[in-house]
């Protein structure tokens, strides 16, 4: 239960009425519960959709759902997407890219990346068939957070400090297998073959992103993990909307 609460605290900004003790090694161990936290986030989106959909046009309702998702997560992974866009746009050496990514200010390319990421996510959600919408809302945050577990497990870290390094050092194959079982069962239960294809697409995109960043930067950072997670949310929604 403590590891679940740690995962919940890290992935959302929803306050808990009590303090949870967290050691450094607990961060990686808590990744086994990332998909469950994703399901909880999806559940909030389903509830919000149930309240908003009868009164609002579909595009506006879905825009508000994406806004709610951003608020629940504190835009944590969107920040990573923006930083990665700025870093890659800077070009130069590995050290220069990492320095730009660590800068808290968002540059022009990072802002463009944020806008395009949110636009793609919104339009991908709008394109999801209505009869599959609640299932998609419940599943796509869980798939993206499983992607984080897959990104972390066995990866190299580009920096010795930071949350990314702490999560990578504490992750392992057992949390990965358990997280995979959760999303595989959940995906098949919610969307049958569509859910499994979306899971496969997330796995492929995650591995491509992981290989790219490890070659480009010598390892992963918290920003690269967040960037891959944002891309996985978009990918999951695109696959669910595209498959007939």
In short:
By secondary structure, the chain is mainly alpha-helical. The protein is built from 12 helices and no strands.
Please explain how this structure is put together:
By secondary structure, the chain is mainly α. The chain has one domain (about 1-240). About 75% of the residues lie in helices and about 0% in strands. The chain is built from 12 helices and no strands. The chain has helices at about 1-10, 25-30, 35-50, 60-75, 75-90, 95-100, 110-125, 135-150, 165-170, 175-190, 195-215, 220-240. Helix 11 (about 195-215) packs antiparallel against helix 12. The radius of gyration is 17 Å and the shape is globular. The mean pLDDT is about 90.
Our estimate of the beta-strand percent is under 5%
Listing every helix as H and every strand as E from the N terminus to the C terminus, the arrangement reads HHHHHHHHHHHH
Average pLDDT, to the nearest integer? 88
The largest β sheet comes out as: none
């Amino acid at each position: 239960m403590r590891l679940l609460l740690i995962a919940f605290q890290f992935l959302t900004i929803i306050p808990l009425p009590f303090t949870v003790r967290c050691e450094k090694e607990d961060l990686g161990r808590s990744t086994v519960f990332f998909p469950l936290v994703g399901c909880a986030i999806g559940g909030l989106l389903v509830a919000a959709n149930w309240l908003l959909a009868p009164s609002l046009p579909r595009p506006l309702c879905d825009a508000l759902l994406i806004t709610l998702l951003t608020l629940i997560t504190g835009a944590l992974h969107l920040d990573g997407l923006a930083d990665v866009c700025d870093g890659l746009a800077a070009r130069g050496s590995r050290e220069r890219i990492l320095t730009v990514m660590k800068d808290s200010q968002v540059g022009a390319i990072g802002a463009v990346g944020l806008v395009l990421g949110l636009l793609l996510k919104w339009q991908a959600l709008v394109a999801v068939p209505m009869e599959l919408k609640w299932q998609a809302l419940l599943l796509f945050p869980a798939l993206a957070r499983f992607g984080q577990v897959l990104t972390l497990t066995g990866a190299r870290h580009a920096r010795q400090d930071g949350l990314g390094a702490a999560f990578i050092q504490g992750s392992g194959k057992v949390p990965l297998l358990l997280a995979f079982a959760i999303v595989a069962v959940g995906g098949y239960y919610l969307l049958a073959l569509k859910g499994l294809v979306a899971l496969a697409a997330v796995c492929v995109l995650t591995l491509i992103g992981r290989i790219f960043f490890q070659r480009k930067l010598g390892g992963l950072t918290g920003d690269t993990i967040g960037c891959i997670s944002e891309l996985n949310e978009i990918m999951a929604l695109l696959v669910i909307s595209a498959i007939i």
